[in-house]
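If it is no trouble, might I ask you for a protein's amino acid sequence along with its backbone structure tokens?
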Amino acid sequence: MDQLTGVWKLVSFTLKSTTTNDSVPAISHPLGRLIFTAEGYMNASVTDADAAKPLPDNKLFSHRGVDELASIVRLFTSYSGRFKVYEEGGQRMLSTDVNIALDPGMINKPQVRKVSFERRENGQDAEANWVWGKVELVAQSVL
């Protein structure tokens, strides 16, 4: 689990066609973070960077209309819960027992993903749907 613990940055998110076998970006400008703790909890937040730009009028969500909120929130997903890593059919799997999510339909339903750790030269992987890179923390000194 030490290999998984930490903060991960979304590099790309592609969908692979079942008819043509082609991979296409699912999000034009992916922006996301995964956080895995040593205590067995995780949090995932993913959106399109274009939807995450600050709005020019600086109004809070609570002061926006439903249509405006929908255009922003529709591209955002977030969930959290306890996770476990296990082997199934020779494949490493990650399962998260979701206990909080932006989409209430995800709560109390496991999110299961295939997991692999590979060093990539360019950060791209046409076979994977989600490609994440671990964020390396840099120590800072305070004077």
Q: What stands out?
A: Confidence is low (pLDDT under 50) at residues 119-128. The two ends are 35 Å apart (CA to CA).
